[in-house]
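Researcher: Please predict.
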Amino acid sequence: MSLKALSIDQAVVLIGKRDAGFPDPPWNPCKKILGLTVLERLILSANQAGVRDFLLVEPGEFHKEGHLPSPEKDKRFRKEDLHLEQVSLSDLPDFVHQGKVKNRFWLFDSDVVFDPAILTDAGQDDSSPLRSIGPGIQMCHREMFPGLVESLLKHGSATPGPHRQVESRGALPTAVLDDKSRFCLKVASREDAKRAVRYILSTGRTHEDGFMARVFIRPVSLMITKHLLKLNITPNTMTIFSIAFGWLSVWLIGRGDSRSAILAGGAFQFASILDHCDGANARMTFRVSKLGSAVDVLGDALVNFCFFLSLSLGLYRVDGQTIWFILGLVVFLSLVLYYFNIIRVARSAGGGSISVTSASFYSFTRETEGKSDRQNVRGKLERLASRVTFIFRREFFVTAILLIIIFVGTKALMVMVSILFPLQAIYTFDRARKRLS
């Protein structure tokens, strides 16, 4: 979600040794947490919340140790709306004379992990020249910058703020979690790092998650994501693996025998889990891209098409009855109508933009799979279709497919989808007609 409405676009990040009473934390700042160092995550989180210009105040030896982000090596730090400027303590007075801090600015400790939405809400409040947002984050007016520089030079190291503020901040907790589950945490130990991982992983859950996603798909996908991030696996790589398992399920279900069908159901289920992993990976590592979204949407649609066509071909291969071809054709035409209507709505909302069209495609798909507005549904057939929309939530649907294959068989699955898919297509057509009218 874009958070560009924030009114504060400058930040001062204090890097290095602590002042008296703040011993060096037993935590290596180069060590990554879910694919990013704490400092990298701080910068990208603040940038997502609308901060464009970062002044990284550091001891002279800090950059040599490789602690700072490298725009040359990581394209996430080469964006047009992200500017990093590194400065040593001795050069800070020049920034005061040049007046580079022109408005309100954020004052960050370099060991803070937080939810960008915390900055969004706090940035709208201009009632106080100094406001503590959470552990290691302060909102300051520009008039405070000269005093901050004077304090830094006086103490000879990057302190969390002017000395009188250091003492008052000592009583603050190391973590804050508000009523909306938005977090702010200082990472000063291994225990803090583990807690940061839990908080960050919690952002992988969404309010749109259904029952099956909450109790099974999300926990499993987040566990997998956690371990794959340690291997620096990118979201696009996860998408490729997801599509590969989807096509494996297509090939297996087309073989026709019961053993292959069960393996196909398992592969289809695992593809769905990996499909959740790539999105969570992209959001947690700030790698959301237009190409990734488009490939993800297109890959899912093609796998769905081919899986059920292959299912009908596999059944025909086993017993040679043409009824499976007929049911396969019904499912195919239903899927064509379903995706045609979703694409119509997505293109209308996207206006030619790939990213907006992909987002609209996903949004309308989730809308048609979610709780329906049955009061505005006309006709008995449309009303019946609206009552079974929950079945088509992918996390529920793929699990149901696996269970049906195991306990009932592929023939029963083919009959069921040949009834349910036309209902889904009719309901989607009705929703699209109302949306476009």
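Model: The chain has two domains: 10-196, 211-436.
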